[in-house]
């Protein structure tokens, strides 16, 4: 028993010794680890603990594409590679100088038009700030001034002779350095676009020796259909100075590319890509980065799907060119140099084609689709549908009322129609385009008595006000609401004491309107009284996939009714009937060209001719000219296409005034032909 007790006592100290040794080893390892952290990694960990500041670098992402209604790409991105430089908050001018010097040996940049101030800064960096301060400033000046004022004074004392010492090579280095210095800290600033294969190869091999330098994929806008609709698509360029405050508030960088006109500007936020972001931890004292950045991938911008049919668009542009050339061959048509057509679905507002052509002094054509939204003209008798509807609604005429069409005399002024038509009703007035019938409507609206040649109302300008109010319900004289920046509203002639101006407004020869306003006007009549917002963009989609399948639908723009005519439906139907007679009934001003030809699918509408006087830049009278117009829609009983055509500055001679009708004929024929072709293609694909 005693022996067993002794054995137990001997085992106890041994176990305690093992425990003590284990504890000692653990403490030794802990102390060693603390020593490594403090001695070996102490500085790094200290900086990391102080790295309370985050910096973010961004890389531009490609813009979204623009496609037509059938998914054909009309605005694309042409890829290339760009040399970029990303500086940090601790980067010094000397750092960028040496990188720029190396790059100047391997890339070519434009070294012209460098500002003098930049040359002075470069001269200082090249020759050393400290050395030049001692050389150009006195000891007293250095003691008196702070660093900023020292440098400013030093810049002032760099002479033109100093700058002449800069060599061609120096200027090449400076041109590169300027681009490197232009960006913000931690944001990639483009130094040179469209790098050659040789430049990419050399720079790539030396990236480890070029801090901040990188080669990034980039893209320029390309247009597979050439100049067609280019003025509608708009331009993209580096953010203009006048817009920096606006875009800055939306978290843009000053070096960002933005849409500055057209659809590129209208849908900037949609087309804009999501930038790749790199998050850096930095030491606020040294400005140095710690560790690798966290990278958040970017994404290409969303795609726009237009309402435009590019097949129809291109054909309309060709038709305009051909008809202008034919028209100019007629006597006195040497001033006819442009024409416009807008084709739109009158029920949805989808614009299928918006074409404009203008001939330059050399006889070549340029695309001017933009003019269909911004150029306003006196549209002549094409607006008479609005005049008759206003008269019916205000009760100054009633359906079927007869008025005698004969010349009206106001002192020495005579106002008449193109022919004396005798007793005619509202339908005949539209069909044969009676001016006198419209004059009587306007005089009644303005409370003017023709028999006594005097106003019997309190407001001698009442006729202007009434017409402009009701015309605006059709979209005349107001913005159509089209999804495009800064559309024109035309010219409001204001008020005059000349009665002739007021009654001329009723026949479209006072205020001016744009082609897009005219197509909205005729669409409002065609669809039964609903003013629908015109649209150029149909859908927004996620980017197309690699196999060119359409991206996921983000948003589809539904038809938007801006207002409904405050007029009886029977009155609208009455004017619709008059418009049908214009195109089909004997004596109709368009019957000769359209008649009952089935290939046009039973159109209706109104012709117009506005007499205008042309003056030179000095205000000298040149000639009397006509604006030829045509508005219409088809089919009459269920319209799916509406159109407005304007051909300015035609000759007033008889026989030269059919250009607008010829364009209308070919436009309808082309539309229905393409529709049939599309239908057959879809059936074959099924």
From TrEMBL:
Family indicated by similarity: Belongs to the transpeptidase family.
Topology in the lipid bilayer: Single-pass membrane protein
Transmembrane segments: 12-36
Subcellular location(s) of the protein: Cell membrane; Membrane
A GO term for molecular function: peptidoglycan L,D-transpeptidase activity
Broad class of where this protein is predominantly found: membrane
Descriptive protein name: Uncharacterized protein
GO cellular component, one term: plasma membrane
Domain Penicillin-binding protein dimerisation: 59-283
Entry-linked PANTHER family: PEPTIDOGLYCAN D,D-TRANSPEPTIDASE (PTHR30627), PEPTIDOGLYCAN D,D-TRANSPEPTIDASE MRDA (PTHR30627:SF2)
Domain Penicillin-binding protein transpeptidase: 340-665
Keywords in alphabetical order: Cell membrane, Cell shape, Cell wall biogenesis/degradation, Membrane, Peptidoglycan synthesis, Transmembrane, Transmembrane helix
Protein's GO biological process: cell wall organization; peptidoglycan biosynthetic process; regulation of cell shape
């Amino acid at each position: 028993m005693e022996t067993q007790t002794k054995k137990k006592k001997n085992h106890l100290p041994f176990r305690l010794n093992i425990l003590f040794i284990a504890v000692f080893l653990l403490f030794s390892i802990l102390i060693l680890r603390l020593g490594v952290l403090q001695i070996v990694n102490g500085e790094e960990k200290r900086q990391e603990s102080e790295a309370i500041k985050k910096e973010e670098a961004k890389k531009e992402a490609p813009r979204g594409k623009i496609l037509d209604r059938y998914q054909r790409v009309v605005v694309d991105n042409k890829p290339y590679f760009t040399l970029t430089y990303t500086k940090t908050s601790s980067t010094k001018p000397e750092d960028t100088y040496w990188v720029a010097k190396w790059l100047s040996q391997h890339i070519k940049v434009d070294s012209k038009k460098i500002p003098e101030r930049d040359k002075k800064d470069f001269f200082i960096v090249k020759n050393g700030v400290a050395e030049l301060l001692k050389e150009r400033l006195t000891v007293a000046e250095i003691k008196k001034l702070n660093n900023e004022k020292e440098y400013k004074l030093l810049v002032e004392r760099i002479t033109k002779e100093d700058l002449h010492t800069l060599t061609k090579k120096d200027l090449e280095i400076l041109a590169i350095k300027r681009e490197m210095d232009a960006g913000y800290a931690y944001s990639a600033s483009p130094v040179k676009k469209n790098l050659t294969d040789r430049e990419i190869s050399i720079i790539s091999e030396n990236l480890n020796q070029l801090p901040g330098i990188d080669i990034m994929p980039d893209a320029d806008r390309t247009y597979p259909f050439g100049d067609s609709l280019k003025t509608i698509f708009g331009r993209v360029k580096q953010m203009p100075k006048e817009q920096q405050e606006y875009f800055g508030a939306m978290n843009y960088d000053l070096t960002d590319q933005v849409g500055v006109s057209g659809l590129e500007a209208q849908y900037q936020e949609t087309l804009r890509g999501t930038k790749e972001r790199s998050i850096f931890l930095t030491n606020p004292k040294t400005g140095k980065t710690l560790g690798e950045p966290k990278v958040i991938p970017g994404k290409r911008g969303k795609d726009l799907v237009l309402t435009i049919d590019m097949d129809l668009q291109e054909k309309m542009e060709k038709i305009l060119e051909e008809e202008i050339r034919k028209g100019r061959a007629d006597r006195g048509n040497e001033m006819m140099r442009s024409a416009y057509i807008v084709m739109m679905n009158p029920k949805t507002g989808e614009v299928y084609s918006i074409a404009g052509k203008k001939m330059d002094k050399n006889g070549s054509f340029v695309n001017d689709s933009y003019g269909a939204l911004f150029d306003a003209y006196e549209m002549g008798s094409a607006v008479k549908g609005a005049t008759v509807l206003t008269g019916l609604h205000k009760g100054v005429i009633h359906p079927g009322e007869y008025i005698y069409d004969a010349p009206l005399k106001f002192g020495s002024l005579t106002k008449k129609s193109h022919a004396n038509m005798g007793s005619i009703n509202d339908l005949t007035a539209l069909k044969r385009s009676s001016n006198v019938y419209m004059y009587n409507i306007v005089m009644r609206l303005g409370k003017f008595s023709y028999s006594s040649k005097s106003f019997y109302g309190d407001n001698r300008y009442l006729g202007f006000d009434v017409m402009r109010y009701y015309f605006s319900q059709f979209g005349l004289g107001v913005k159509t609401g089209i999804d495009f920046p800064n559309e024109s509203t035309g010219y409001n002639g204001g008020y005059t004491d000349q009665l002739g101006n007021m009654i001329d407004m009723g026949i479209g020869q006072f205020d001016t309107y744009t082609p897009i306003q005219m197509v909205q006007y005729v669409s409002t009549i065609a669809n039964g009284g609903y003013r629908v917002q015109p649209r150029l963009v149909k859908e927004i989609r996620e980017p197309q996939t690699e196999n060119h399948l359409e991206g996921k639908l983000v948003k589809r723009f539904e038809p938007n009714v801006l207002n409904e005519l405050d007029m009886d439906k029977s009155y609208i139907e009455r004017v619709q009937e008059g418009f049908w007679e214009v195109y089909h009934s004997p004596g109709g001003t368009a019957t000769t060209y359209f008649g009952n030809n089935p290939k046009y699918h039973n159109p209706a509408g109104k012709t117009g001719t506005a007499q205008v006087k042309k003056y030179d830049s000095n205000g000298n009278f040149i000639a009397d000219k006509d604006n030829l117009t045509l508005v219409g829609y088809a089919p009459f009983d269920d319209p799916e296409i509406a159109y407005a055509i304007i051909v300015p500055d035609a000759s007033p001679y008889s026989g030269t005034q059919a250009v607008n009708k010829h364009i209308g004929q070919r436009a309808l024929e082309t539309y229905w032909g393409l529709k049939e072709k599309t239908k057959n293609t879809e059936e074959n694909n099924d």
